[in-house]
Design brief:
22 strands; single chain; WSC_carb-bd; alpha+beta; Rossmann fold; sulfotransferase activity; P-loop_NTPase; about 550 residues; transmembrane helix; WSC domain-containing protein; 3 domains; 7-stranded antiparallel beta sheet; 8-stranded antiparallel beta sheet
């Protein structure tokens, strides 16, 4: 018998070892697979996200973490229920180096309707974060405004220790230190600082009036003058010891009111009514009185109230039904796809109490509560009928129409997202960067113009509603739509609609393109179409397209 080769002897011993101890063999395999998985995850985090987007994988490099992020010592409930800070400080807070909110961020790519103010540099403790909200990270492209865009519904935001992490929150729970200690550049923006070792650069997010500022689950509505008859306007009230926004919101939620109004030590609860419409917003400086129970919050005073909308649903506009008698008068709710037709249907149903119908059938809309979706569009049981159709024959089938028009730059992107991502989803990066987007713009942009021109030409009675005007002044525009539909206006219902205007089909702001998808050639074509539509509207003595459209 020939001797075994020297190299084979160790292998033979290993083989005999695992045959005698099979459980050790499986343990070895498990450790091997675990090590391989860790290597794979590390390579995924380290890879260049720009290459990923260009290759068409569609993976979004910005990842959301619901539990407070790496090393955060807070629960999910803490992350979702943080306290709000929505007013400017008027005095120095202890342990602050330099006045707060004095340095304006001068970057040019700030999202519309938002502005950031640098507050200062703060100590970070991994066991007890300065802000304990939802976190995001991007090891290649993190910038102040990328963080800002993902904290759009929260009052303040910060960039973490190593310049690649973003945490959102309301309440700062750490002392302020010298600015020189926050000296690390942002990973994706060298001109801005993103904290330092165990230090955080904190920015405050200020939103325009049309943007939502949140306090946990409550929505900040603004500063308002005390109503003339406060007892009638806001029927429930109480004096609260050590007043805070949290305590007033909780009280009004328990009493099942949709509004919480803070007036110093007193908390008022109620609903929007003609006595307290929330339409005449005051300067926030008039409400700058700090809460007794929370120094970072403002509780208003006896003359000017700080108002929040609670999670309580206002049921005054939630009842909906089919028309009591069938109508032979067919009214179209016409729009180019992506122009806000579904949103307009939601508003009309709440404002009138009647279901809207559709020229088509969409099961997802039916399941979301649009019960008129199943009716034939000629049934006569709905208050108006959604349609994207254009052309003489289709238009003349209706006796009247509400024509929704939206900025084509916005409408095209909204429809592209719907086509490839669903009603509230998003198209992937692969679709945006691939051949689908240029082909889509080429085919759909001319349709945006021809759709409006056809309805203006062949429509029997047409009321034009611009999406931008409806968004800016919902009460007045929706009131005009209700009158056009031949119904009596209920101001209480309209005020109720204002508090529930978004519905179930609003896209989240968490995924937005970081570049302009329109090429110069596309812009030249679309700008020409805007001019054509603007001219057609003015020839019919209608107002032209809104100023928010590209310069004409």
């Amino acid at each position: 018998k020939s001797p075994q080769p020297i190299m084979a002897r160790p292998l033979l011993k290993i083989h005999r070892y695992f045959r005698r101890k099979p459980i050790r063999f499986f343990s070895f395999i498990l450790l091997y697979l675990t090590a391989g998985s860790l290597v794979f995850l590390h390579s995924g985090f380290s890879s260049d996200t720009s290459t990923t987007g260009a290759s068409g994988s569609g993976r979004d490099p910005l990842i959301s973490e619901g539990g407070g992020g790496t090393g955060a010592g807070s629960s999910t409930s803490d992350a979702l229920g943080l306290l709000g800070r929505v007013f400017k400080e008027t005095r120095r807070v202890p342990r602050r180096f330099g006045p707060p909110w004095m340095k304006e961020n001068g970057a040019q790519d700030a999202p519309e309707g938002r502005n950031t103010k640098h507050i200062g540099c703060y100590i970070d403790d991994t066991q007890k974060r300065a802000l304990r909200g939802v976190s995001f990270f991007d090891y290649k492209k993190m910038t102040v405004f990328r963080c800002q865009d993902n904290c759009a519904e929260i009052c303040s935001l910060w960039i973490s220790t190593f310049g690649a992490e973003c945490y959102c929150g309301h309440k700062i729970q750490a002392p302020n230190v010298s600015e020189s200690e926050c000296n690390m550049e942002c990973k994706g923006e060298k001109s801005n600082l993103c904290g330092g070792p165990n230090r955080l650069s904190i920015y405050r997010l200020e939103l325009s009036q049309e943007s939502a500022r949140r306090y946990g689950s409550a929505i900040f509505k603004g500063c308002f003058k005390r109503p003339d008859n406060v007892t009638l306007a806001l029927p429930a009230s109480a004096v609260i010891k050590n007043m805070s926004v949290d305590k007033c919101v909780d009280m009004c939620t328990e009493k099942e009111f949709s509004l919480a109004a803070l007036a110093g030590e007193k908390c008022h609860c109620g609903f929007p009514t003609p006595l307290f419409t929330l339409h005449e917003r005051e300067d926030e400086e008039l409400c700058l009185q700090h809460c007794a129970g929370e120094d970072f919050e403002s509780c208003g005073n006896n003359d000017f109230f700080v108002v929040y909308q609670t999670q309580v649903q206002d049921n005054r506009c939630m009842d909906r039904r089919f028309l009591p008698t069938r109508s032979k008068h067919l009214v179209a709710l016409a729009s180019f796809p992506g122009a806000g037709n579904t949103w307009a249907r939601h508003l009309i149903e709440l404002a009138t109490g009647y279901y809207t119908g559709s020229y088509y059938f969409d099961g997802s809309l039916y399941n979301k509560g649009f019960k008129g979706e199943r009716d034939h569009w000629r049934s006569g049981r709905t208050i108006c009928i959604k349609t994207h159709e254009s052309g003489k024959k289709e238009i003349e089938a209706f006796d009247a129409s509400i024509l929704m028009i939206r900025n084509p730059y916005k409408a095209l992107m909204a429809e592209f997202n719907r086509k490839y991502g669903g009603h509230i989803g998003f198209a992937s990066q692969a679709h945006w960067r691939g051949k689908e987007w240029p082909e889509f713009v080429k085919n759909y942009a001319p349709w945006w113009a021809s759709h409006t021109l056809d309805w203006l030409k062949y429509g029997k009675t047409v009321q034009v509603v611009h999406f931008e005007d409806l968004k800016r002044d919902l009460f007045s525009e929706l009131k005009g739509m209700v009158i056009f539909l031949g119904l009596e206006v209920s101001e209480d219902r309209l005020l109720c609609v204002e508090g529930q205007k978004d519905g179930n089909f609003k896209r989240s702001g968490l995924r937005k393109l970081e570049y302009d998808p329109y090429t110069p050639e596309m812009c030249a074509t679309i700008d020409g179409l805007i001019k054509t539509v603007d001219t057609a509207l003015r020839k019919r003595n209608l107002s032209g397209v809104p100023e928010k459209y590209r310069p004409r």
